């Protein structure tokens, strides 16, 4: 607790929500960019007092898995981070699969850091990756540059931007990554099975939306999961399933942890809320990889979360232009959903609909992703000494409208359009400064920063 007699720069009042509980009528007192005191009751003297009485104040969300630059390159950093600010997400962990160059060495990494520091609206951590062949030697320099994690794939979307890494190269990469102490997240789909099933569907003339799920069945995901965890067992690396659409992924991670393997898996919010029926209804707008599953699988996913088996919840935000999501041929549509601006309202809504504590939002959407990416203790918590990153939520009945997404016009679409939410983001603070007032992004490009990994 800081000295409460000296005026603070800003005090933000409301009901504080942490992973441990809710502090009614609380306050966060800020000096500079940092939380200097947390308390309850009458606010202490400050140069500015922001009264959010009756509203919920969460730590700024940390999205551990999103893509700024898959569609238009690094120009997407500014737009995606604007959307994050509007969604109460104050730190994003950006994937390395960028156009025209993925982040495969320290030079590219430093160039991307410069763009982040020039254009971002929220703070940004960065993944690193490797080239399809011959790139493993760059792993130590990427770790030294401040990468928060590495990302590899068992499935190839593009041989340059998003390659499949073969088993031998993957083993070499895992061994070197193990030496860095960083997590290696892996896109988990078996290429051979998916390609064969896709060819069969196309040959039979079936290109309707449900074929996306049928050609990427649970088996394809689980084959890749076992491969990933066996590589971790052999090399000592921390293997992380980048997006498990199946409870089985969390079961496998638990089983491998019992063997002494450092194994984890994350859930994306779409796998907790959307089903195959949404894929059929929305077509390309609901196409993501791995695909949406059955309503029964969604229930199993929630059981995994409540059992403490999920590492964290992310968005896998991938803002493809709408023209790449509307073909009647589901195989011609790009895979990936928008999700940053709907993240906090949707997670709160899902928890309340199930009668679950809102502390789970603070834990799985802020605290845990910050911990896994080595950004704690500065990010992800309402705690003295942490960055003063806040997400203020107003309860009510709000219908999510994709036209309000603060992104490029062609990216103002959402699989959650028309979904009734039980809250909205009324304000966002980044390092003590208000950057969203419920209607407008208030800060300028470049007021977000690159945040390097703080801890192994």
Can you put this structure into words, describing what you see?
30% of the residues lie in helices and 22% in strands. With 456 residues, it is of the alpha/beta class. The protein is globular, with a radius of gyration of 21 Å. Strand 15 and strand 16 form a beta hairpin. It contains 12 helices and 16 strands. It has a 7-stranded mixed sheet. The model has no long low-confidence stretch (mean pLDDT 97). It starts with 9 loop residues before the first strand and ends in a 20-residue tail after the last strand.
How many separate helices?
Answer: 12
Shape: globular
Largest sheet: 7 strands, mixed
Q: What is the typical, i.e. mean, pLDDT?
A: 97
SSE ordering: EEEEEHEHEHEHEHHHEHEEHHEHHEEE
Radius of gyration: 21 Å
Separation, N- and C-terminal Cα atoms: 28 Å
Low-confidence stretches: none
**Order of strands side by side in the largest beta sheet?**
3-2-1-4-14-15-16
Helix/strand-derived category reads alpha/beta
Strand content: 15-25%
Number of strands: 16
In which range does the helix fraction lie? 25-40%
Summarize this entry quickly.
With 456 residues, this protein is an alpha/beta fold.
How is the secondary structure organized here?
Layout: E1 10-17, E2 22-31, E3 34-40, E4 49-59, E5 61-66, H1 76-86, E6 89-94, H2 106-119, E7 123-128, H3 139-144, E8 149-153, H4 167-180, E9 183-187, H5 191-203, H6 210-214, H7 218-235, E10 238-241, H8 247-258, E11 263-265, E12 267-268, H9 276-282, H10 295-306, E13 313-314, H11 343-353, H12 359-372, E14 390-399, E15 420-430, E16 433-436
Parallel strand pairs: 1-4, 5-6, 6-7, 7-8, 8-9, 9-10, 10-11, 12-13
Antiparallel strand pairs: 1-2, 2-3, 4-14, 14-15, 15-16
Helix pairs in contact: 4-7, 7-8
